[in-house]
Amino acid sequence: MPTRSSKTAPHPLDPLTADEVLAASQILRNHLQCADDEIRFKVIDLAEPPKALTLQYIYHNGSAPNRKARIYYHVKRSQALMVAIANLATHEIENKYNSPDSQGPVDADEYILVHEACNNHPAVKAEIAKLKLPPNARVLNDPWAFGTDDTNERRRLFQCYMYIALSEDDEANHYSIPIPLAPIFDAHTLELVQLQKLPMGTGDEVDEETQPWDPTKPVEYSAGILGKDAFRKDLKPLQVHQPQGASFRTSGRRVEWQKWSFILGWTVREGPVLHDVRYDGRPLFYRISMSEMTVPYGDPRTPYHRKQAFDLGDSGFGLTSNILSLGCDCLGHIAYFNGVRVTGDGNPMVMPNVVCMHEIDDGIGWKHTNLRNGKSSVVRNRQLVIQCTATVANYEYILAFVLDQAANIHIEVRATGIVSTAPIRQGLHVPWGTVVAPGVLALNHQHIFCVRIDPILDGDSKNTIAYDECQPVVNEPDLDPYGCAFRVNTTVIEKPGGYDLDISKNRTFKIINEGRTNAISGQPRGYKLHPVPSQMLMMGPETFNFRRGIFSSKAIWVTKYNDDELWAAGEFTNQSREDTGMAVWTKRPENVKNEDVVLWHAFGVTHVTRPEGKSF
Amino acid sequence: MPTRSSKTAPHPLDPLTADEVLAASQILRNHLQCADDEIRFKVIDLAEPPKALTLQYIYHNGSAPNRKARIYYHVKRSQALMVAIANLATHEIENKYNSPDSQGPVDADEYILVHEACNNHPAVKAEIAKLKLPPNARVLNDPWAFGTDDTNERRRLFQCYMYIALSEDDEANHYSIPIPLAPIFDAHTLELVQLQKLPMGTGDEVDEETQPWDPTKPVEYSAGILGKDAFRKDLKPLQVHQPQGASFRTSGRRVEWQKWSFILGWTVREGPVLHDVRYDGRPLFYRISMSEMTVPYGDPRTPYHRKQAFDLGDSGFGLTSNILSLGCDCLGHIAYFNGVRVTGDGNPMVMPNVVCMHEIDDGIGWKHTNLRNGKSSVVRNRQLVIQCTATVANYEYILAFVLDQAANIHIEVRATGIVSTAPIRQGLHVPWGTVVAPGVLALNHQHIFCVRIDPILDGDSKNTIAYDECQPVVNEPDLDPYGCAFRVNTTVIEKPGGYDLDISKNRTFKIINEGRTNAISGQPRGYKLHPVPSQMLMMGPETFNFRRGIFSSKAIWVTKYNDDELWAAGEFTNQSREDTGMAVWTKRPENVKNEDVVLWHAFGVTHVTRPEGKSF
């Protein structure tokens, strides 16, 4: 079918340009008729056009839907989160509402303000003094989005976990020396709400009087501090050369590679997004994205019960994406893509090279050797990797969409960086984490991700989700005298909801187009999901952890498509009290069979830290 | 600790050399005092010395145990499988026994003889004639190891599945045109036992009179037949350069790479084996190997119920390993290792380059970006891959041991090649497989592998297997008022047996050394297994499929170590009636806690073939 993605005007699904971000902030200013410094912008992201219009445009010569922007902002002196949709074609605000009960995501400006407020507050300084730190100690803090433990709380709060660094070098690893202080600040007033102390023992109790710091050695990672001699010297260079360049072609945000074609979108919230994904000219997916992630911690001691980050909804994989520099993260021929975010004062800030794209060789893709003549045929497995690295304080998440030459899309997340640490009295152990250094506890936690898959198999919005199970034939001796037979039983999903995996039945989910038949197999054409079997959320339905993100409780979710239903735990996750996403969508008594349907897959890791055996 | 692996004499765990294979066959000849052509050799492999003696030698300056060879052979005119252990130091046969109730593995000589006997047998030719094949048709057959369906059967049988090729080119893909004949031959007498026909319909019934072939197009893969134009032209070269060479060092079969040290063993049965595996000077494993694989088919129609290959025990990953040629299968700087097998007449046959070793770059290994200064630290994930490709008729298995820089060993199997096909009347579908081309059925089946892990953590033979489960704290409101807490519960395994995985509890198995404590965590030093959750064998305990290889029924097995207990389904799997491996070892009422213990992991795939959408 025709593609019109190479037109000069932005494609309806292209990310916002810097000009568009600026235009959006201007449209809002003009609409609000207030002075420049009266508005504090938090987020400006593409407000995608309705799917129906976009498909008309892409596949049926429809006219291009208007470009629109979604704006989160505050009118200064107000704590109310405001949301506006700016039409970039008509220069009008189409929809404006405040969301007084919600907290917007963390923005860069407030993060810095809270950090400073905590470090400079006299009461905090007075507590620090009691630690009797060595003269070279520098005090730092990481403001954390405030997990929910009170449905009546309406203030915008940050819990500032505090650490020290024992070096003037700004690369010193403060996470290796946590101190027992986590003051709570109000992000709007920048007032100290509570000078919270951290437990050093097995229970909730904290030291009546903050005790002097019990010295321990820092654990550093920076080459600048450790020096070259601290690193392995016996690894010889491995270089990837592509003398003819890469095998992909780009035109604007449209990428073409090995029968694949897609638009590489990007949002502040999600980072890279794949739109209008086609293989060999056949439409497969309207949109594929990392929708959300939640990181609940398993330590009941106050305030750790509040540690539950939603790293997309609370901050954003785009916003926190690393600026990638050539030769640093990837090998071979690399293409980079920029992102754009808004500054507090409404100006666009280009984030260069936040997404990289390159090819890799993944070993043998297919091989057969003819044992009669010894001749072998080999195809190597070339892959295309679209990748970003999001830094959320101590953690790094490396998100990659990996496409191969056999029509597979692999969605990979690597969790790396530094574990979230807490202080503990030296010599003590608690069930809630692993001591990883004297006086340092790595808390047990989970990372549960949710991928959103919006299919349009062979161009039809009407698709069906079904699962196959392989089950043995039982008690049919006439049919199966030796008991070796098994059948594939297919169950079609007709209602929205959450579904479990079942390894024992090899339960595999697939997207099928009941309207089109595979000429060979005689079965509906389909695309299979290879799920990642993971332990789901351990916290029960009565907990805030569960109620804030029910997507984390089941591996598979099926919902009926609606425009703007992109985020698994709802639009506003920061200090959320209830899930306004999956929890709502899956309660609708809708038919999802042979309908415009969305498939969601939740997966993750339960992380119980294993320390190295090296002694201190 | 000292390593003496670089001595000129072979290390006790080195594979047999060509000279040693020849010496072993000579020792047996001399012992048997019979004419050269009176003996037909099947297999000569290293008979490993007792673990106790070998550890004494490696770690405590003990003397080198004698080198010994295990020989499978037949005295001609006898069908009895004979086994002898030849001492290469004393030149004596130490142990000789026949195994009349067992069938040895398939050997190359008989495979060719059976193939010829089938293709040339007048009765077979007469049936072929009824197919009225086009003049350019060539008839081929694949002799299959004969799965068990009769406990009284003692003949050595092969089922010859027949196909045609429609080209003189010897690269023509005969698997794409199966014909409804599968004669059974006796491998000793080469007599036709049964002119078995294959069902073309939904049931067992076969055509009374073999019907003329219903023409279908072949599906070819060979570049020689398809021509260059059939392949993608838009993939640009990707080259790996290692200007300073590889980072590994070898001395004999001892390999040193990135804190790793191991002896790269090899057997005809298993292919590559890792011995005496150490990390940073610390012993981790005495032996790591692919122990067995079973491939049961899920089609109850005769004779498909007999399709259950044990691709290590029936043939051997070493015996079937491809001769790898530089630049063909791998990129970068590659080291190759040879294997040696015995010919039927007792001569050594060197199999050049059956194992390759090279480094790969697996993307980012660790990264952290300091959000305060934007500086990032990145470590790439360099890995060492030890790999072989085994061709078992239509299938290829790519077995790789992948070592990384964080003390992980990844064991990877890629199943590739061509699916096992059967004829089906055009237009029909059956529940037992997927029609992948007109008249061609790909039968549903499973591949279940079993890895054997023999640990010596920190040099102690006494280790323990335990599993951790992450479970929520329930009904302890005083401890856990918000319900977020979870604990890690550890269960120590004290008895041999099979154990399930449990994703819902994040059950993870680990090897621990109860005698040594991690100085930081205060817990026993351990090494964790990241299992592959898979559907296990579907066939029930009453079936031959189950009784021949119970390892395939559970993901985890624990046994007490005994010398020579290396093969999960027992020594002789070909036409086996009972599992003489795990089934026996796990019934022993032994303690395995803080003992010399072996950990086994079974994993695999249930393969329901998905055809491409391309039309015919």
What structural keywords apply?
mainly beta, 8 helices, homodimer, 31 strands, disordered N terminus, ten-stranded antiparallel β-sheet, five-stranded antiparallel β-sheet, 616 residues
Structure description:
The structure is a homodimer of 616-residue chains. By secondary structure, the first copy, chain A, is mainly β. Helices cover 10% and strands 39% of the residues of chain A. Chain A has helices at residues 18-32, 51-59, 108-120, 122-130, 223-226, 311-315, 544-547, 582-585; strands spanning 39-46, 68-75, 82-87, 92-98, 138-145, 157-165, 184-186, 192-194, 239-241, 249-251, 254-257, 260-267, 271-279, 282-296, 308-310, 334-342, 348-369, 376-392, 395-404, 409-417, 421-423, 433-437, 440-443, 445-455, 464-472, 486-492, 497-499, 508-517, 524-529, 556-560, 597-607. In chain A, the strands form six sheets. In chain A, strands 10, 11, 12, 13, 14, 15, 24, 27, 30 and 31 form a ten-stranded antiparallel β-sheet that branches. In chain A, strands 16-17-18-19-20 form a five-stranded antiparallel β-sheet. Chain A is globular. In chain A, 49% of the residues are buried. Chains A and B meet through strand 9, strand 17, strand 18, strand 19 and strand 20 of A and strand 9, strand 17, strand 18, strand 19 and strand 20 of B. Strand 9 (239-241) of chain A pairs antiparallel with strand 9 of chain B, so a sheet runs across the interface.
